[in-house]
Amino acid sequence: MQHRRMASFPPITQNPDIRFLGRLLGDVIRAYGGEKLYRQTEYIRSASVDRARGVAGADLVDTGLDALSLDDTLAFVRGFMLFSMLANLAEDRQGITAEPGADLASAVAALEAHGIAKEAVLALLERALIVPVLTAHPTEVRRKSMIDHKNRIADLMLLMDSGRAETDNGEKIEEAIARQIALLWQTRPLRRERLYVQDEIENVLAYFRDSFLPVLPALYAKWERVLGARPQSFLRVGSWIGGDRDGNPNVQADQLRFALARGCEAAIGHYLDAVHALGAELSVSTELAHVPQAVLDLAERSGDNAPSRKDEPYRRAIAGIYARLCATHLALTGKAAPRPSVLPADPYGDPSALRRDLVIIAQGLASEGDGALATGGALGRLIRAVETFGFHLATLDMRQNSDVHERVVAELLNQAGVEADYGALDEYARIALLRRELSTNRPLGSRFAVYGEETTSELAIVHAAAQAHRTYGSQSITHYIISKAESVSDLLEVNIILKEAGLWRAGTDGASPQAAIMAVPLFETIADLEAAPKVMAAYFGLPEIAAIVTARGHQEVMIGYSDSNKDGGYLTSTWGLHQASKALEPVFAQAGTAIQLFHGRGGAVGRGGGSAFAAIRAQPPGTVQGRIRVTEQGEIIAAKFGTRDVAAVNLEAMTSATLLASLEPEALSDRDAARFATAMDRISHGAFTAYRDLVYGTDGFKEFFRELTPIQEIAGLKIGSRPASRTKSTRIEDLRAIPWVFSWAQARVMLPGWYGVGHALSDFEDKALLADMAATWPFFRSAMANLEMVLAKSDLGIARRYLPLVQDQAAAEGIFGRIADGWSRTHDGLLALTGQSRLLEKNPTLETSIRLRLPYIEPLNLLQIELLKRHRAGEDDPRIKEGIELSINAIATALRNSG
Ligand code: PGA
């Protein structure tokens, strides 16, 4: 072991931040883990680096690993995980600059170059809605405490960048960073207890407090300068946490109430702080400035009669606003504000009443001097925050599975004596029956009926939603997502359930019906995506729905990336989503309403991951129209919104992409669009056939997957409140998409991100056409870029090492051979159509990033395999299970977008 060089920890990168942090980590391992662990770690690391570099004879990584005791193994894995975390941090520091063109000024300039004036941009923004929607999908393996330490290191490094050697407290920055790394080293990375929905709600609140609340108003202020005008508040934030109960029995009415109450507390808490600070700032005296009557009136109404402030009407008015906000806090959350006011006051009835008072102040300030006090600065940002976050903070979506709705409606109809067996009716009979019920305001439910647990819980949650509307306003819940939607009756069933709580009102006496919450279908299999335009056309064809949709001006459709991928493979899913969106556009045009697509995507490529900027821009023409919602999940939330700087960059990229996708003229000629689409149909068909043959048509594939990957162990990770699967079935069809993608990533196969593409590409004769598509078609370019990333992170050499875990070796060899062949074909096909000699040749930043990581992942994979073997052989030392879970965490951290 000793012959290997003992370089400083770790020397394989030019990135000075990584070298710096790696050196400190090495010191920490030595100080806290001991010299022996440090040496072992360093030995394995440098052997792995040599191997990755192709140094001759450097294929003995396992030898170093064999020498590790179980305790050392756990410590080693933690060391490698921390290194990856610190490398991510260093990379993020470089990546804080936006993708080229992904800022609003560039988007406006690009549009102007196409002859699209700023006025058109402003007109679009008046009807726009752009919403990242945060979910608790369980793919974030890191504990919040670890992320917090990491963020503190990032802050300290920023301080160092500014030329400082010491913190404000006189501490040396390098020592402070070393201390944070030592804390990371001593922080348990795995959760001992399961996560509750309440924990997920609290976790996401931190992102609101630290990022969204301060960043959004500041971004708007910047955009107003670019646009020369003040657009309405089109960029908002949504959440699923506390409302998404699809497959999560732990989300019920209590959780919905808790989520909204905590959101309200955070929003009003933010306003209270801001108003308090304004009070300190606005010391304008009537002796030195003219103050308009409206402000004087507001001051008079405040009840603040302190003699010391007699000539300071702004301060008095603000004391009144503060007092009313405190009363609002008490009224809405049941708790006194953290710093209560001494003045008696009535609560605000709604956020617009608060906004009105703030605007009076702003107009007062604007009437003096050049108005600079009013528009820029803290007051302008506060008004923007109130418009954006209201009293509810984030709009909370509801979500449930269509099967559940069907059962609930069946029970309601049965108990009401309307229909004994709803489930036995065909689609036409269902629609007729549901429409009849929707045409009257008489509810189906009775206080005296005794319902089953499911129906009781579902009814309780819609009643909680109706109460939320009364308490926090109608913006608190606007969408109800229907998972596995496939028919018109799926949509009508939700309207029936909403009606039970008064959230659907039948149009009586000639008035139009009203839906206070929009039923939104989520189409998520290949067949359902294909049928989506038909379903929506039929839905819009119902006069009561047409009336609602026309009055609202838009309707949302959600499309699911992960499940369509699991169903039909990467390319067919990507193409199916594109085609469904495209085919929906004329259906919406015919109905005279704007289309609002909601993209349900995760971080991994097999779940729609990749550059959001490129993805939005690659949407088919006519399908964005200024309105878009996109899920943000798991590890992506910390990556995109973990600090203010990155949050600002990502929110601006989303906004710019939406503007470009909505207004930019179509780059492709009709002729190219037609021939590319024909080619894509064929390619997609080829990829679909190959994927389905392997995954659903191969004997023993299910067992192969369950034994090769750590799928069973992943299910035991305590990373989310919802159970890993909806049913006890082990069928791949019934497995949730997240563990499917996650487990393939761990074994480095990453099959959902590429399998089948190679078959389709190699069978497609017109290679020139493929190259043309890759060069000129944003859709295809974006699809190929994501494919390339996932191929570069996969490693079939390592994946092969997992093979002994499969019991039926003969079958395993056969299946693995097909996967390996598919990989080579995909790899070769991709290089051919992009004209490259190696993967990522044209993306040096990503190439460097991945190349730096690989040597750190490989030993983790090898250890994982060993531990899995021992675990499955029945060894019951708890450290083995812990080691497996740690290795899963460490590999996910190193791969970044793996979940
Ligand atoms: P779901 O999400 O299983 O909650 O529908 C799928 C995903 O986001 O991958």
TrEMBL record:
InterPro entries: PEP_COase, PEP_COase_bac/pln-type, PEP_COase_Lys_AS, PEPCASE_His_AS, Pyrv/PenolPyrv_kinase-like_dom. Its cofactor is Mg(2+). GO terms for molecular function: magnesium ion binding; phosphoenolpyruvate carboxylase activity. It catalyses: oxaloacetate + phosphate = phosphoenolpyruvate + hydrogencarbonate. The active site is at residues 137, 566. GO terms for biological process: carbon fixation; oxaloacetate metabolic process; tricarboxylic acid cycle. It comes from the Bacteria. The keyword Lyase applies. The keyword Nuclease does not apply. Keywords: Carbon dioxide fixation, Lyase, Magnesium, Pyruvate. One of its GO terms (cellular component) is cytosol. Its EC number is 4.1.1.31. Gene3D superfamilies: Phosphoenolpyruvate/pyruvate domain. Forms oxaloacetate, a four-carbon dicarboxylic acid source for the tricarboxylic acid cycle. Homotetramer. Belongs to the PEPCase type 1 family. This is Phosphoenolpyruvate carboxylase.
